[in-house]
Amino acid sequence: MTTDSVLAEIVLLSELAQEPSVNITGNILDGSVWHPDTSYVIAGTTTLQSGATLEIRPGTRVFLSSGASLQLSGDFTIQGTATDSIYFLNDGTGDWDGIAFSADEFSASDPVKLASFRGGEEVSINGKGVNFADCRFQGLDVDLMDNVRSFGDITLERCAFVEAPFFMSAAENDLLITQCRFEDSHLFFDLYGEVVLEHSVLSASNLLFAGSGSDDGPVTVQYNVLANSPNSAMATATGLSSSGTTWQVRNNTFYNNRYGIGFNSDPPLELNSNVFLANTTDILLEFGNLDNLSLAYNLFEDTVGVFQDFQSDATTYKLLGQIISTNNGYGADAYLNIFQDPELVTDSTQRSSFLFPSSSTAPVVDSGDPNRQDANGSPLDMGAFPYDNQPPGAVALVLPGVDTAGYGDTLTFTWFSSSDLDSYGNQDNATYALVIAYDATTERYSAEEDTTLTFLTPRAWPDSTTFTWWVEASDGYNASAVEETSSFVTLSLGLEPVAPVLPGVDTAEYGDTLTFAWYRSSEEGRYDSADNITYALVIAYDATTERYSAGGDTTLTFVTPRTWPDSTTFTWWVEAYDGVGYSEADDTGSFVTLSLGLEPVALVLPGVDTA
């Protein structure tokens, strides 16, 4: 028992001495409700009979005297909360005898929840469909079914077993153990029904399967950590059937055990996508038929100590450990097992990542059975914990603080650095992308590892439009969530209109030399194409528009064309072009043509009137 649990029990016993208490013995009254403001002491043999009801409210403490027992055969509700568990303890007089959950009927959707059992000899579960969630069993035996067959299926979810041997005895029921933790606990399964053990941790514990022949149910052991066992972390005892359903032992991590797996019988067994690390011996084959063993896509730390007592006359798996192939780019044997450091996090102080892949390039990543996938759809990883990168934290924005952006403005976007939430990816070297969205368009600008980005207002952006922007951080594998955005509105983003200078006349006659002049565009010096702005003189009259290229000049001279009509108003302007677009014609000039034809011819001869 840990120091913390001892102190907690001392506190609870002191409260027993101070609070009102009720002694319970014999049969519990139908319709009883036990409250947290009262301590209940079980003395002798106490029973909730079939058909009777009992509700134990959150925070209630039930104390059992030395040798006392509680049998729950009726309809009971035992559900604590995250802040108020329900406790079953001894009263300081010695270990109680047992608590038996033996109800004839029990709803699988209404489990025993957030209850703690310690200070006794045994908790037995032999009722119909009694399920447990978030419960703790400490320092006592847990006996499932107690040799009673054909009751309901059992689920143990997120439960902790500390120095609490667990026995499943000769039951035809199906058992699911998921997300549980076993510490210094021996697990024994005498099989009839199906057993699934998954997403659990067994520390300094032993997992033993036994059976009695052809009735042995299928077994699935997957996504578990089995570590620090002084014997075999998992073993099969004699008597198991050699012709039953194939056992699935896959995606487990066997770490720092004397033996990872020990075989003493012949069940058809598939070892697939497991990791064996720091075990004295990975697989102990004391007795068994190798033809019933499927061993593929596993990772062993090296080729030494994989097998002990390997049968010298066996032909199966003679090529185990002989590197003649590849798996995901790593040297592999004929069965595609890998033999090298899995690169897992082995610092036990890093509880959140202990025995996880240390990076996305660890050999265990994407090297599992290619016929299966990780939950996210990626190729299967080996071991209990798939590579599961957490994206960097959301990026907080700083600038720009402006509400509008005009033509030729220099925009500077600034943001705070993001933090990577785990040990994967670039970690301290997140890269950033500025994302700007408008209308149905989204543009991305890479800032690499900088937290600022500066550029001129693009000419292609539309006028009078709201732009929303945010920043995404990436660790090389995942992008951060978007939790903060900002926005601005564009003003006129085109070239400034060109202001005319000449001609300053109101009329133009035949043979006149016209000189048109204008100021330079204000874009020069702002964009990359600023030094290459060209101009076009545009002259419009009637339904005709004529364009005269001036190149990069700001003046253009020519003689009044003979094709221009007399007595007509001509309007002119200049458009600047920067390689992207033209300026608008906001400033124009005009003039009117007089007679543009030849002057009449004066006659001289003949001077007579008749001939």
Q: Outline of this structure?
A:
The protein has 611 residues and is mainly beta.
Structure description:
By secondary structure, this protein is mostly beta strands. The chain folds into 3 domains: 3-284; 397-490, Immunoglobulin-like (Sandwich), CATH 2.60.40.10; 500-593, Sandwich (Immunoglobulin-like), CATH 2.60.40.10. 3% of the residues lie in helices and 40% in strands. It is built from 1 helix and 55 strands. The chain has a 25-stranded parallel sheet that branches. A 9-stranded parallel sheet has the order 10-13-16-19-22-25-28-31-34, with no helix packed on it. The model is unreliable at 1-8 and 146-150 (pLDDT under 50).
Using only C-alpha atoms, the radius of gyration works out to 43 Å
Provide a count of the helices: 1
Largest sheet: 25 strands, parallel
Averaging pLDDT over every residue, what do you get?
81
Percentage of residues in helical conformation:
under 10%
Write the layout of secondary structure elements.
Layout lengths: L2 H16 L2 E7 L4 E3 L4 E10 L4 E4 L4 E4 L4 E4 L2 E4 L7 E5 L7 E4 L10 E2 L1 E4 L3 E4 L6 E2 L2 E3 L2 E4 L9 E4 L2 E3 L3 E6 L3 E4 L2 E3 L2 E6 L3 E4 L2 E3 L2 E5 L8 E4 L2 E3 L4 E5 L10 E4 L2 E3 L3 E5 L5 E4 L2 E3 L3 E5 L7 E4 L2 E2 L6 E2 L16 E3 L2 E3 L5 E2 L57 E3 L4 E2 L4 E6 L15 E8 L2 E8 L3 E5 L9 E9 L11 E5 L9 E3 L4 E2 L4 E6 L15 E8 L2 E8 L3 E5 L9 E9 L11 E5 L18
Parallel strand pairs: 1-3, 2-4, 3-5, 3-6, 4-7, 5-8, 6-9, 8-11, 9-12, 10-13, 11-14, 12-15, 13-16, 14-17, 15-18, 16-19, 17-20, 18-21, 19-22, 20-23, 21-24, 22-25, 23-26, 24-27, 25-28, 26-29, 27-30, 28-31, 29-32, 30-33, 31-34, 32-35, 33-36, 35-39, 41-47, 49-55
Antiparallel strand pairs: 37-38, 40-42, 42-45, 43-44, 43-46, 46-47, 48-50, 50-53, 51-52, 51-54, 54-55
